[in-house]
Amino acid sequence: MIELKNVTYTYNKNEPSARVALNGVSLTLDDGDFLGLIGHTGSGKSTLTQIIAGLLPPPEGSVSVDGRDYADYKTAARELRKKVGLVFQYPEHQLFEETVYRDIAFGPKNQKLTEDEIDGRVREAARRVNIGGDLLDKSPFDLSGGQKRRVAIAGVVAMKPEVLILDEPTAGLDPEGRDELLSMLEELHGDWCKTVILVSHSMEDIARTVKTAAVMNNGRLVMNGPVEDIFSCGDELRSMGLNTPQISRIVDGLIAAGLPLSRRIFTVGAAADEIEKIVRGGR
Amino acid sequence: MLRDITLGQYYNTSSPLHEMDPRTKIIGVIVYMAVLFMASSLWEYMLAALFTAFLIKISKVPLGFITRGLKPLAVIMCFTLALNLFMTGTGNELFRWWIFRITDDGIVLAVKMAVRLVFLVMGTSLLTLTTSPIALTGGIERLLSPLRRFGVPSHEIAMMMSIALRFIPTLMEETDKIIKAQTSRGADFESGNLIQRVKAMVPILVPLFVGAFRRAEELAMAMECRCYNGGEGRTSLRELKFRRVDAMALTAGILLVSAMTALKLLKNGGLI
């Protein structure tokens, strides 16, 4: 469990270019959570994830890990780095090894695991991100864009972090790659990594993948709760430069046109079921 | 750590130095460097220090910003200091151990070299801190343009420089992100012996170079798409003009050189 209390973070402190990226954010991350983190560009999502992953200089406010309060963030950060694996945006830009196998093994090696354990981790991680065994000996630079992305994610997954954070993992992927990636996350959650945080711009991704979500705006955490509740506040989301999933907007239009649909429909599947019910019921 | 590199960074504010024509500033820096190397006596160094302080004052760039640029140079500084300290053979011997001997001349020379280096870096970083990269390269291009006749590709040189300067912040941001990403994967850059530390740089350098090549390729493509084909027949949006500040800078430059020469003459004449 990771708890942030009243965390404020300023970039370039004491300089004319100082910018407050996080402003009094409090967030509790329980074991087993699958949290969606939404917010438009510059809302502080990435800063928040980096603080949770223990990668930034100490912020103001307090951080506790597994119920233990840390007086100073530096010790907390060491603990956080062990627990949290962060997949950055476009993680394929961080590949560096000669072979896919060695790149995935980088993290487990740093964890000082034994050779056998490393081998097991690499193969398991590759299997989970759907990278075939024949690709393990190839150079990561010879793979396709989607494959590179999955190898890079495997590099973090192989460390078996308790908390896995992914920053816009679907950015730039085709619809098929996106579906595959999100299903992969669903399988990882609970089974391999206790807690998963999915950072995304895409309301569709959030609607189909997670149950609870947090919304960031201008460095503040403005909403936190079940996805249904968040997507019910369409106007508020729009005022923050966000929106509800496309299908919800279609459903809203259908309701306005007189169809007796529920306002709490956020996925295409759910919409199709509801409409089918009405069409069959009407006959 | 990365934010310590101020080289090539522009500090946006308004000051007489910011308003100055880039050509004036480039020539000014050259004169400044020449004056620094002219300096030898204490009084001459005082003059150089006074002038540097004056420049920093009117530039309105916070001192901390300028001194931060010195940190990465600490190694070179120590090296120069040591070299001058131990390799100067002349003067009275003060200390001797094995093959090392320190003389009073050596100490004076070492201190002078170090001070000179500090001023040199401070003065030249003022140029980039007060001149936007576009203005800087525009100035270089115009200054080099007379050499076109002799086949010097002035436009190409200026373009290369402006692209290089433009990409410093981008690459720094990229480096920062890669360091964080590899840290998150348990990489350790701060412990171990020298060889281990150098090895630890590989996971940063490889993605950085790959990224730089990718960016270069994309940029070349984007420039070609907008019909860029070198400097032939290109005009600039903002024409450079000399103004009053430039005349004042010229006066200051002449005064500085004259003062330095005067000090030298006085010294040689045995007056101070």
Structure description:
- With 283 residues, chain A is an alpha/beta fold.
- In chain A, the strands form 2 sheets. Chain A has a 6-stranded mixed β-sheet, with helices on both faces.
- The relative contact order of chain A is 0.14.
- Chain A has helices at 45-52, 73-83, 100-110, 115-128, 145-157, 175-188, 203-209, 227-231, 234-239, 246-256, 268-282; strands spanning 2-11, 19-29, 34-38, 60-65, 68-69, 84-87, 163-167, 195-200, 212-217, 220-226.
- Chain B is mostly helical.
- Chain B folds into 2 domains: 1-131 and 242-272, no CATH class; 156-237, no CATH class.
- In chain B, helix 3 (42-59) packs parallel to helix 6.
- The model of chain B has no long low-confidence stretch (mean pLDDT 84).
- In chain B, strands 1-2 form a two-stranded antiparallel ribbon.
- Chains A and B meet through strand 6 and helix 3 of A and helix 8 and helix 10 of B.
**What is the molecular shape of chain A?**
globular
Number of domains of chain B: 2
Q: Report the mean per-residue pLDDT of chain B as an integer.
A: 84
Q: Structural class, from secondary structure content of chain B?
A: mainly alpha
Structural classification of chain A: alpha/beta
| Strand order in the largest sheet of chain A | 6-7-8-3-9-10
Can you count the helices of chain B?
A: 11
Q: Oligomer, anyone? A: heterodimer
- Describe the global form of chain B: flat
Q: Helix and strand succession of chain A?
A: EEEHEEHEHHHEHEHEEHHHH
Terminal CA distance of chain A:
52 Å
Number of strands of chain A: 10
What's the count of strands of chain B? 2
Strand content of chain B: under 5%
- Global Rg of chain A: 21 Å
